[in-house]
Amino acid sequence: MEKEEESRAILSCYREIDNRIKEKKDEIADARSNMFISIMNDVETIHKDVRKPREQVADAETLLGLTNILMDSVRSHTALCITPPEFVSCLIRQFGQLKRRKELLDSSYNVSWVDIGSSVSPIFMSGSGCRTMNGPMLTVLKQRKPVVHAKQARSVKRTHPKEFKAAVDLISDTDRNIRAMFEVLKRRKKVQVESLILNRDSFSQTIENLFALSFLVKDGRVHIYIDETGARVVAPRNGPSAEEIKTGVAKHHQFMFRLDFNDWEVMKEYVPCEEEVMPQRYTFGISSCSAKSIVEDDIGIPEGIPIDRVSQSVCTV
């Protein structure tokens, strides 16, 4: 309610100013009157409280009415402008000097240009923000200063990043595991997939065996097939020669084998005890039902990467 009352009061003030403009339009156009300044001060005071669109429209209409009155006043003054004869008469009246000629016995006027110059000289005085330059500009060409680039010494120091021994050991362990698996396949000729990759004492080493088998399949050094009993069998074969790889005759192979912890538990029950062919890669905690020892196979392979027992692995190479 208070905002509506304020809006009504503002609109009422603008209507009052409009009425004053219509009634005092002659006084507004008079240069000797202060009516125009008084009305503009009132408009500026009310404009500070304007917020709504209706109030803005009323403010604009008030300014438009005031502008129209001023434009009408300017048009009326320009319609009655001074003519050249009137301008000359004014100069003679203000600065003329009477001079009589004896020959013609008539009177003539001589204008005092000194007095005219003295009267209009304030117009040509130095104004605020206006400066002039006297005399011609200097036309002598200035020599351009040569640009001297600072020489920067190149850094000749070379840095060699440190090689991480852990990564080298990891690659070496993987290669040794692949080589050990291929030696087992060469001795046994053919082995079931489950017996080749299973390590019933370590889920992580089972995943490592599956990882090594995927590399052998990719390089074409083993092939997997199904025998007459329906079992998946792995058998070794000669890998492609360098010439076959260079010419593109040899092709890469891949296989997919899903294995998680639950599958590993089922595989331990499916594969009979002591039929795992891959050796253990540690010398402690060997169960009575584990595979052949490292001493029996004469292949020394360090412990591989530990893998989370709840994870699952899908090998694709």
TrEMBL record:
Subcellular location field: Nucleus
UniProtKB keywords: DNA damage, DNA recombination, DNA repair, Nucleus
Biological process according to GO: DNA recombination; DNA repair
Chain ranges of the Non-structural maintenance of chromosome element 4 C-terminal domain: 191-278
Gene Ontology cellular-component terms listed: nucleus; Smc5-Smc6 complex
Pfam families named among the record's database cross-references: Nse4_C
Main location: nucleus
Domain of life (superkingdom): Eukaryota
PANTHER family in alphabetical order: NON-STRUCTURAL MAINTENANCE OF CHROMOSOMES ELEMENT 4 (PTHR16140:SF0)
Oligomer status and interactors: Component of the SMC5-SMC6 complex.
Purpose of the protein: Component of the SMC5-SMC6 complex, that promotes sister chromatid alignment after DNA damage and facilitates double-stranded DNA breaks (DSBs) repair via homologous recombination between sister chromatids.
Family: Belongs to the NSE4 family.
Protein name listed in UniProt: Non-structural maintenance of chromosomes element 4
Organism per entry: Salvia divinorum
